[in-house]
Amino acid sequence: MERINGYKIIDDYKCIYFSDRKISRNKIYKLTDGNIEWFYKVVGTKIQYKELFYSTILKNKGLNTITYDLAQYKGKFGIISKNYNPKNLPNISLANVIKEYQKANSSRIYNVIMLPEIIETFCVEHKYKYNPQIKNELFFRFMIQIFLANSDLSEPNIELLIDEPIELTSYYDFESCGTINLNDDINSYLMDTYMLEYNAEINSFPTSFKILTNFLKNGTSKELEIFKIWLEKMKETNTKMIIEEIEEKTSKRFPNELKLRLIKNYQKNLQNIDSIVSKKSDNKID
């Protein structure tokens, strides 16, 4: 396919659906090339390369993630990815599953530990087949949120595909990664949603530091072991190779300033996490 300055030209793709909601700052198109359905999002250069960078890291770690490419559609620049629901299965956001639970239980309290049971109850009530792997997958979402400093991995951004059994959608939407420091109050980053919390009551905006320290205090020995193993895996990421892979894919040099910033934010966040984990191991944090 033709590329101009790194961007795939996809003008011949047919538009199936277009979203220009006021609550979203991005225009999103659902397109088809006649065989495959795609999502195309109009975003600026910074977001384009964030999406490429972080999705490529997760792909190289063997995680089920959407990957992105630069694309130009009808004169607009953005990113393109394959439809994460190629079978067009019925789907529901985790936020709506939780709202149903809250309505039935007159409670706003929930967290990562409670979510598998909430989802299983939802499946029973709607006669869907529950997937026991959901528990492990949600724990991985929780970890990846911390490792990538993703301030927007919240319930509306996780969807359930109604299959036999149900499953979570692939990882997607990385534009808010690397936007917070561990001690930041994330209230300014989120409106009416929350980062995934471990087992604390969610009735106020948590800081990312509180999310991590709460997990380190209350996680099971198995969960803590998995967390530390994956922390080492993420630290071992060869960011130079990630950049080179993206440049080879797009046939375009990665903008130098963005490259340096993304690598710095990624590595600094992991160093901060490592420091907190080490202090916790030495019983130096409460």
What is the fold's blueprint, element by element?
Layout: E1 3-4, E2 7-9, E3 14-19, E4 27-32, E5 37-42, H1 45-60, E6 69-73, E7 76-82, E8 91-93, H2 94-105, H3 115-126, H4 134-147, E9 159-161, E10 167-168, H5 208-218, H6 221-235, H7 239-250, H8 256-281
Helix pairs in contact: 1-7, 2-3, 5-8, 6-8
Biggest sheet: strands, sense, closure?
A: 7 strands, mixed
Percent helix: 40-55%
Overall strand count? 10
Q: What's the SSE pattern?
A: EEEEEHEEEHHHEEHHHH
Biggest sheet: strands side by side, in what order? Answer: 1-2-6-7-5-4-3
Shape: globular
* End-to-end gap: 56 Å
Radius of gyration, CA atoms, in whole angstroms:
19 Å
Q: Strand portion, in percent?
A: 15-25%
Structure description:
The protein is an alpha+beta fold and 286 residues long. The chain has a domain at 91-233. The protein contains 8 helices and 10 strands. It has helices spanning 45-60, 94-105, 115-126, 134-147, 208-218, 221-235, 239-250, 256-281, and strands at residues 3-4, 7-9, 14-19, 27-32, 37-42, 69-73, 76-82, 91-93, 159-161, 167-168. A 7-stranded mixed sheet has the order 1-2-6-7-5-4-3, with helices on one face. It has a 3-stranded antiparallel sheet with strand order 8-9-10. Helix 6 (221-235) packs antiparallel against helix 8. The longest helix is centred in the last third of the chain and has 26 residues, at 256-281. The model is unreliable at 186-194 (pLDDT under 50).
Features:
single chain; 286 residues; alpha+beta; seven-stranded mixed β-sheet; three-stranded antiparallel β-sheet; 8 helices
